[in-house]
Amino acid sequence: MDRQLASVIAERVWHPFVLGMLKAGSDPAEPPIRQSLYLLLQACFIVTVEAKGYLPSHLIGPQGPMKDPEFRQYYREVLRQAELPLETPPIPPVAEEYFAEGFSQLLGLRDTLADLPLLWLAELYAHLKDYSLDQNKHWALQKPRRGAYYTPIHITRFLAEQTLGPLIAERQTGGVLDTIRVLDPSMGCGHFIFTALDFLLETLTPYYQQKEDLLNRIYTARFQRQPPEETRQRLLHLLASDSLYGIDLDDLAVYVCKLILVLYAKLQPVPPSFAQGLRVGNALWGAWSDEVGLEGAKLNNIPSLREEYGSLFDQYLRQLSPSPAVPFHWELEFPEVFLGEKKGFDVILANPPYLHVKRSMDPQTKKALAQRFTLARGQWDQGALFIEQSLKRLINRQGYIGMILPKPFFTAQNFEALRRMILEHSHIQSFGPCGVCFAQPSVEANILVLTGKPTPRVTITELCGKQFRKTKTIPAEIFPRLPFCTFSYLIEPHHFGEIVSNLQQGNYVFLDRLVTWKRGVELGKGGTTTSGVPCITGEDLTSFRAVPRAFIQPTDDLTVYKEPSLYKRPEKLLLRRVAQRPIAAVDTTGAYVLNTIYVGTTVPGVSPHALCAVLNSDFFAGLFEQLFNLDDKLFPYLRISQLDRVPIPPALGSCPRLAEISRRLHTMLPKEEEAELLREIEAIVREAYQVG
After folding, report:
1. Cα gap 645→432, rounded to integer Å
2. CA separation for the pair 182, 390 (Å, rounded)
3. Is the pLDDT of residue 115 over 50?
4. Mean pLDDT value across the chain
5. Does the reported pTM lie above 0.70?
6. How much is the pLDDT for 354?
7. Alpha-carbon distance 394 to 408, whole Å?
């Protein structure tokens, strides 16, 4: 569904609904936008039912005006046919005319809606949830909610194939397909849920078409009712009752999921347990039986665990922290998942909300989560807590996890504990880049597939267009040995093996043994002036050359300008901070530099010029890129914490020939001569690394 159609529905249909609610007077407990959005989703559901021909023959739309009681009765009857608790918000009489106007506009789009996939309701809600009214009661599209990014279908499909595919193959080998339980702990409008459902229906329908008697016995035993005629409908009822689980804080998002499930059932009668696994709740805030002093056995054979033990679990959490979150106790909500022989979900699929601790997280929530999660330390992200919860509590030992995650989870130093936890509690099946795959936020993401089974080699995948392809495999033993346990898909195992061997033998050291770094003046380009002390900006720094073209007016504020001795040296090594690869030069003018440049202080015996040549070499840049996945497209910048951990033969830092070449490249040379000198640098560096 494109944004243009969503905008049309917002303006022509939803806007009249909102105006009607505003005219009737706002209920403080139920804001007009929210209440009218609830009505809009129901109206879209009804028109979709009509457009796709799912309406039972005894339900014929009224011919009279839409504000007539007859029409309202028809509206309620269609929702009642869904057999889900889809209560209709009351529409005040004064708002009926506005509602009729909006619904008429929606009916005019019926032919368009008939051709859309069922998931269009989820996409509509994803578009509309960030709308609000301005002071003139006109629509204003707000910035998307932090962390709430919706996953494209080609990515949800690939992750479903990589997790559910091998699981089904394993179970088919034994001749029996037990119930497969799939969870999205941050499901939003259900993109992963419905992709999983589609995959299960496509895969299992042919299987059970050959075993109709078995499927009928399973259905009758489960629901105590006559099975539908279609194999697909019987499977749908079983899967929607026993296999699909999802949690989200947004009750309207959960509501949309249930509406879509009813559309899957084509408005035909469904069992009472249909969609029972889709719940509103906070997936990160709940207690467990071992924490409150109960053994799992004590929870068995109790009709209502929530009523029996809910207050005990709540009390335990209140003692930890007065979090404003409503608790969601997994064992009490889903005892069939956690209290049987096979505890936990078989597959977890998720795009967990990315919310860094520095941004938009209230202090009370920070404190509460820090008491519950090992990874809530230092510079942490809420998305990492979903991984911890999945690994330690939610997945069964032989299960699969498929997630799309921000790139820093795979490479950044502050997520090293997350990566080591992943390796401790699971095995990597595959991972790889999927680029900038979200419509709104600027986030580079990777996919990650984990399994409970040992995997000697990890498959690296890459997104090309809308298709993933396998690029190579890497020995699983490599990742714990990389700096910060980086999950790098660029690493070349044969090079890395030689480098690790040389490190262990003392032939190499880490770069931080040769040089330390500090950022320059903490001013942006806006802090420069037209006169004063010469200053070098990031744009003024190129390989081997740094020319001061700006000026600043330093003060005694050392937190901004640092010690003058940092700059006033005969020779100082400079490194550009915002770049795809290391770009270094040696400054001999004593100029200040902005914070877009790192200033290097070499240890005695190390030549700034020689080290400059190494940093600018293609070999060093390639090694740095491989170790830390440095292929950022959006915000490429060099992290010193990573640069410090690059192995280097120490002799390179004092190589007289490299220092001589670096000095010569500082001046303007003929292109042929410059190219020859750069080739010589590469040869010296490669020989020192003992790589052909």
Report:
1. 23
2. 12
3. yes
4. 87
5. yes
6. 87
7. 24
Do residues 529 and 552 lie in contact, with contact meaning Cβ atoms separated by under 8 Å? Answer: yes
Cα separation, 215 vs 210, in Å, equals 10
Q: Look at residue 411 and tell me whether its pLDDT is greater than 80.
A: yes
Q: Is 318 helix (H, G, I), strand (E, B) or coil?
A: helix
Q: What is the DSSP letter of 82?
A: T
Distances 440 to 36, 130, 373, 383, 583 between C-alpha atoms, Å: 25, 12, 29, 18, 31
pLDDT given for residue 65 in this prediction: 46
| Residue 395, beta-bridge partner list | 345
> Could you please report the per-residue DSSP string of 535-553?
EE-GGGEETTEE---EEE-
Please state the three-class secondary structure of 279-314 as a single string: EECCCCCCCCCCCCCCCHHHHCCCCCHHHHHHHHHH
Q: 3-class SS at 478?
A: helix
Please, which residues have CB within 8 angstroms of residue 34's CB and are 6 or more apart in sequence? 252
The tokens describing 181, both together, are 């339980």
Residues 150 and 124 sit within 8 Å (Cβ to Cβ):
no
Q: How many helices (H) and strands (E) does the chain have?
A: 26, 22
For position 409, what pLDDT does the model report? 95
The edge-to-edge listing of strands for the beta sheet with 244-248 is 278-280, 244-248, 182-184, 345-350, 395-406, 445-451, 427-435, 457-464, 467-475
Degrees to nearest 5, angle at CA 96 with 93 and 102: 160
Return the C-alpha torsion angle 526, 529, 534, 536, nearest 10. 20
Specify the 3-state DSSP secondary structure of 629. Answer: coil
* CA-atom Rg of the chain in angstroms: 30
Q: Which residues pair with 535 in a beta bridge?
A: 550, 592
What gap in Å lies between CA 588 and CA 550, rounded to an integer? 16
DSSP string spanning 582-606?
--EEEE-S--EEBTTEEEEEEPTT-
Query: What integer is the mean pLDDT of 79-98?
Result: 67
Residues in Cβ contact with 495 at an 8 Å cutoff, skipping those fewer than 6 apart: 623, 626, 691
Q: Residue 432 has what DSSP assignment? A: E
Q: Counting every residue, how long is the chain?
A: 692
- Say how many C-beta atoms besides its own lie within 10 A of residue 26's C-beta: 12
Helix, strand or coil, per DSSP, at residue 392: helix
- The burial class, CB within 10 Å (0-12 / 13-18 / 19+), for 396 is middle
Q: Which residue has the tokens 């190499």?
A: 508
Angle at 481 between CA 479 and CA 485, to 5 degrees: 55
What mean pLDDT do residues 183-210 have? 95
DSSP structural state of residue 481: G
Q: Are 55 and 78 a contacting pair, CB within 8 Å?
A: yes
What pLDDT score does 423 carry?
97
Token pair of 293 as six digits: 């002093």
> What's the pLDDT at 382?
93
Highest mean pLDDT among 21-30, 98-107, 393-402: 393-402
Task: Identify whether the C-beta of residue 577 lies closer than 8 Å to the C-beta of residue 521.
Answer: no
In the predicted model, what is the mean pLDDT of residues 615-619?
97
- pLDDT at 30 > cutoff 70: no
Q: At what angle do helices 618-628 and 608-616 cross, to 10 degrees?
A: 70
Average pLDDT on 19-44 reads 77
Average pLDDT in the 604-611 region? 97
| Type of residue numbered 536 | I
What type of residue sits at position 149? Y
Rounded to whole angstroms, the Cα distance separating 279 from 250 reads: 10
Confidence of residue 233 (pLDDT cuts 50, 70, 90): very high
Q: Are 585 and 612 in contact (CB under 8 A)?
A: yes
Tell me what pLDDT residue 150 has.
Answer: 72
List the beta bridge partners of residue 403: 350, 448
Q: Is the pLDDT of residue 355 over 90?
A: no
Token pair recorded at residue 633: 């497209």
Cβ-contact 18, 133 below 8 angstroms: yes
